[in-house]
Design a protein that fits this description.
The complex is a heterodimer of chains A (106) and B (117). With 106 residues, chain A is mainly β. Chain A is built from no helices and eleven strands. Helix content of chain A is 0%, strand content 51%. In chain B, strands 2, 4, 5, 6, 9, 10 and 11 form a seven-stranded mixed beta sheet that branches. In chain B, strands 1-3-8-7 form a four-stranded antiparallel beta sheet, with no helix packed on it. The chains are: A mainly beta (106), B mainly beta (117).
């Protein structure tokens, strides 16, 4: 089974900061990776699909990159409404969510 | 608009069974793979099960943690997907989300399943 490791588990940043969330797969997942945002008490929301494709309606502040085993979600300018937990998810072999990165405002 | 509405959650005792449902609307249900994803209280997301479409023989896939105990099914005529959960364990306590497509663009609001004596 493919394991997905997200880092950091908790990230505190200031409004306007550029923030980077990391996701590492235990083996090559061929860019078959998605990012989800989950706000407290809500269902998850798709942000990015196939590593770097922005879902319709999602702010262009969000972007994704990566290849092989290493992937990144970047928020170019952190806003208060971005407070949430972010999960990566691979579907290259089976289906696996990462353990999440909780993003807070400093 | 796309809607996924889960129902059927509740409190059950260990080793009991429960069937939860998801009603879909606003998209061509028969063309979409359907999934169940769960989230234990205060924990992360866990993929549970997937069912493919008729052209793919309604193939099903399960997480190791539920294999042999849970069964996913669908009724394309009703735009419904189900999760039959047997021999429930306390560790199955979670919010269960129905989700659709690839990528997982559509999600319901979840139904809470509590397994406790």
């Amino acid at each position: 089974d493919i394991q997905m490791t997200q880092s950091p588990s908790l990230l505190s940043a200031s409004v306007g900061d550029r923030v980077t969330l990391n996701c590492k797969a235990s083996q090559n997942i061929n860019k078959n990776l998605e990012w989800y945002q989950q706000k407290l008490g809500e269902a998850p929301k798709l942000l990015i699909y196939y590593t770097n494709n922005l879902q319709t309606g999602i702010s262009s502040r969000f972007s994704g990159s990566g290849s092989g085993t290493d992937y990144t979600l970047t928020i170019s300018s952190l806003q208060p409404e971005d407070v949430a937990t972010y999960y990566c998810y691979q579907y290259n072999s089976g289906f696996t969510f990462g353990s999440g990165t909780k993003l807070e405002i400093k | 608009a796309v809607q996924l509405v889960e129902s059927g959650g509740g409190l059950v005792q260990p080793k009991e069974s429960l069937k939860i449902s998801c009603a879909a609307s606003g998209f061509t249900f028969s063309n979409a793979a359907m999934y169940w994803v769960r989230q234990a209280p205060g924990k992360g997301l866990e993929w549970v099960a997937r069912i493919r479409t008729k052209p793919n023989n309604y193939a099903t896939y399960y997480a190791d943690s539920v294999k042999g105990r849970f069964t996913i099914s669908r009724d394309d005529s009703k735009s419904m997907v189900y999760l039959q959960m047997d021999n429930l364990k306390t560790e199955d306590t979670a919010m269960y989300y129905c989700t659709a497509g690839q990528p997982l663009a559509y999600w319901g609001q979840g139904t809470l399943v509590t397994v406790s004596s």
